[in-house]
Amino acid sequence: MTSTFFLNFLKSLNILYIEDEEKIRKNVSNTLNLISNKVFDLPNCIEALNLFSKEHIDIILSDISMPEMNGIEFVKKVRQNNKRIPIILLTAHTDTPFLLEATKLKLVDYLVKPLDFNQLKEALIKASQEIYENGDYCIYFPNNTCYNITEKKLYKDSKEQNITTKEISLLELLYKNKTRVVPTTEIKNSIWEDSFEATDSALKAVLSKLRKKIGKDSIRNVSGIGYQLQDT
Fold it and tell me: Which stretches are labeled DNA-binding (predicted)?
């Protein structure tokens, strides 16, 4: 896989960014928003732990030196329940003692502030590679269902569910194009090789079965145009 692939992959991932200095946080957050799907930027680790328990986070980017709870303590708490999420720590040169402790916490990388954009980008690409290779790339739906793209498997309440190849093709097509309404003709051409099989009734049957599995409101019908996957 190329760097371009993983840069595109990053656009589907959520990043949690923690930095107590407001000016730095705003500048870095603006950069991250150009790279990823969604950025949660917070000023301290207490708020970050609370958000981490409620939102789906793919990558953590955290400063080390912060009041109340430092970045190392935060990572230790995260690692108690999540051993695999990629974590990148940000440090000043004076944080060397912390880094010796951080080597035990399975970090993707650590970066020295002030941040260099290219180094940040490379660290995020490395994190996205780790997610992809671990098979942790999932689309989450409101009914406690998730679809793992690398495994091509659907789970509900952590239990594998049946999903057909056509349902997979439809779901992945809509996800890759979730910023737009995918025309009905494009969907048919993508799912069926034989145009005679690509009927309106056949498409509606696949849609109906998929909606039952991921939630009926997860796919929006735009009358006369096509379908769009709703934000998950």
Answer: 129-231
Of 67-71, 134-138, 150-154, minimum mean pLDDT range: 134-138
**Residues 132/105, Cβ–Cβ less than 8 Å:** no
Mean pLDDT of the chain: 89
What would the two tokens of residue 21 be? 């200095």
Q: Are residues 127 and 158 in the same domain?
A: no
- Which of 91, 95, 127, 174 has the alpha carbon at shortest distance from 9? 127
CA distance 8 to 11: 5
- For residue 148, the enclosing domain spans 138-229
Does one domain contain both 20 and 121?
A: yes
Alpha-carbon distance of 37 to 15, in angstroms, equals: 8
Question: How many domains are there within the chain?
Answer: 2
pTM over 0.85: no
Q: What is the pLDDT of residues 44-63, one digit of tens each?
A: 999 999 999 887 788 999 99
- 129 in Cβ contact with 109 (< 8 Å): no
Shared domain for 124 and 47, answered yes or no, is: yes
